[in-house]
Amino acid sequence: MSFSFGISSPGSTLRITASRTIFTTLVPPLQHDLINFYGPGGSFRSYSLWQLFSEPRVIPEGYFKDKVVFLGFASDLRGRGFTDKEILEVTAPGGDMYGVEIHATIAGNIIENKFISRISPVLESLLIVLAIFVMTFSILFMQPQYAASVLVGTACIWAAATFVAFKYFLYFLPGFMVITGSIVQIFAIGMFTIALIAQRELEDTKRKVGLST
């Protein structure tokens, strides 16, 4: 399946977005699946309503044959208290995205069965907790040079797993920022704990040899 994308002319209030479709077995997304965006706002090829009736013809004859066509507003009338742009929980170079583009994207994901999958929230949480436990254990019970290797290695393995899962399997593996952000905190807490233990051992040694005041 392939999609075509574009921007309608300035001032238009109705957009027609076309997408070529090859229907196969449609599999509905799971509850935790994410939309697999094909690009930022304005990525789909689209036409304004006036282009359907323009003379000479702008749109080739038969262009919409065997395609799914989405109709929707594509104007930004904020001054009149109306807009069809949706604020997404993602940052894209094109900014906000019109609702009709979101609908076309979801339809494309369903037709191609290419939603971004996620493992269960419970398993995600367990993996993150396990990674943080390994890093904390290394700081507290391993030599500094080995502990540093474990910290860096854990972050690198998580980053590589995140990239491979998304690139080749369309799986979203969260927590990379949590893991990398935790390294500094774990390292600081570990160093403080080690320093505190060393201070107590030094005081105990002084007391045993009679150097304490």
Task: List its salient traits.
4-stranded antiparallel beta sheet; 12% strand; 2 domains; 4 helices; 213 residues; two-stranded antiparallel sheet; disordered N terminus; rod-shaped; alpha+beta
Question: Can you walk through the features of this model?
Answer:
The chain has 213 residues and is of the alpha+beta class. It folds into 2 domains: 111 residues, no CATH class; 88 residues, no CATH class. Helix content is 44%, strand content 12%. It is built from 4 helices and 8 strands, in the order ββββββββαααα. The strands form 3 sheets. Strands 1, 2, 3 and 4 form a 4-stranded antiparallel beta sheet that branches. A two-stranded antiparallel sheet has the order 5-6. A hairpin with a 4-residue loop joins strand 5 and strand 6. Helix 2 packs parallel to helix 4. The N terminus is likely disordered.
Summarize the structure.
The protein is α+β, with helices and mostly antiparallel strands and 213 residues long.
Query: How helix-rich are the residues, as a percent range?
Result: 40-55%
Q: Which term fits the overall shape? A: rod-shaped
Q: Give the DSSP E fraction (strand runs of 2 or more residues).
A: 5-15%
Number of helices: 4
| CA gyration radius, whole angstroms | 28 Å
What is the ordering of alpha helices and beta strands? Answer: EEEEEEEEHHHH
Summarize the biggest pleated sheet: 4 strands, antiparallel
Overall pLDDT metric: 74
Low confidence ranges: 1-16
Number of domains: 2
Count of β-strands: 8
- Distance linking N and C termini: 82 Å
Classify the oligomer: single chain
Task: Give the helix/strand class.
Answer: alpha+beta
